[in-house]
Amino acid sequence: MERYLQSFIQLLKDPQKKILLLAALFFIGILFSAYSLFMLPHNLVVNGGMTSSGLATWIFAKNFLVILIAFMAGIVALNAAYRLKKEVIVFKEASTQTTRSSSELASEANSVDKQTFLTTLRNTKKTELAQTGLNSICELLHAGQGALYLVDFKKKIELKAGFALVTENETVSFEMGEGLVGQAASSGKSFYLDELPEGYSNMITSGLGSAAPKFLFITPVKKEEQVNAVLEIATFKPIAESDKKQATELATLLLESL
C-alpha cells in the first residue's frame, strides 16, 4: 500500500502526468454527469408517482455534486496545462537567449577590432601593407587561401597579395568581366559559392597532407563608389554573413591605407 502511495505522489510531481490524470478525471466526471442526467427522470419516479420533496432534493443535489466535481476537475486540468505551457515557453525563450548569447560570443571571439586592424596597418611598412592586411582577414575567416587584387587605371585586375597561394612567380591578372574576379570587379557584386568546381583552387599542402577548399567568397572593394580592388577568400567551412560583412569592411580599410 505504501509503495502505491509513493508512486501516486511521484505521479503528482510530474506536471504532464498530473495533467493527464486530471483530464482522465474530467472525462470520467463527464460520463457520470451524463449518466446522472439520463437517470434523473427515472430516479424522480417511485411506483409510478413522484418522489417526496426531501428525496427529490437529495437526487438533485447528488446530480449537481457530480457535475460540479467534473467541472472542477476540468478547470484544474486546464489551469495546470496553461501553466505548463507557459513554463515550456519560458524555457524555450531562455534556451534561445542562451544559444544566441553563445553565437554572439563566438562571433565576437572570431571578430577583428577595426581599431586594432588600423593600428596594425599603421605599424606596417608600406610595401607590406597589402600582405599584412590580407593575412588578418584570412585569419578572421579561417581561410585556406586568399587573394587581394587591385584594379589599375587601365581597368586591369592584378594580384597584389596572396595567402597560401602558389603562383610560380607568374603575374596573376584578369580583364574586366573575366572569371569570377573580373565579374565581381565589373558588376560591383559579391559572389559566394558553396561548392567549388574541381580544379578551381590550388590544393593546400601541409605536413599533414593536402586538401582543396570547398567555399569561395569574392567581393569587390569600393572607394567612393568605385571598385578599386577585389577580395577572394577560399575556405573549408561555410562563411557566416557577419564574417563576410566584416571581411569586406576590413578590406575597404586596407584599400584606403594602400
Structure description:
The chain has 258 residues and is α+β, with helices and mostly antiparallel strands. The chain has two domains: 2-110; 114-257, Beta-Lactamase. The protein is 57% helix and 20% strand. It has helices at residues 2-13, 15-43, 53-110, 114-122, 129-140, 179-187, 241-257, and strands spanning 45-46, 49-50, 143-151, 156-163, 173-175, 191-193, 204-206, 209-211, 215-223, 226-235. The strands form three sheets. Strands 5-4-3-10-9-6 form a six-stranded antiparallel beta sheet, sandwiched between helices. A two-stranded antiparallel ribbon has the order 1-2. Strand 1 (45-46) and strand 2 (49-50) form a beta hairpin.
Task: Provide a short characterization of the protein structure.
It contains 7 helices and 10 strands. The protein has helices at 2-13, 15-43, 53-110, 114-122, 129-140, 179-187, 241-257, and strands at 45-46, 49-50, 143-151, 156-163, 173-175, 191-193, 204-206, 209-211, 215-223, 226-235. It starts with a helix and ends with a helix.
Topology, element by element:
Layout: H1 2-13, H2 15-43, E1 45-46, E2 49-50, H3 53-110, H4 114-122, H5 129-140, E3 143-151, E4 156-163, E5 173-175, H6 179-187, E6 191-193, E7 204-206, E8 209-211, E9 215-223, E10 226-235, H7 241-257
Antiparallel strand pairs: 1-2, 3-4, 3-10, 4-5, 6-9, 7-8, 9-10
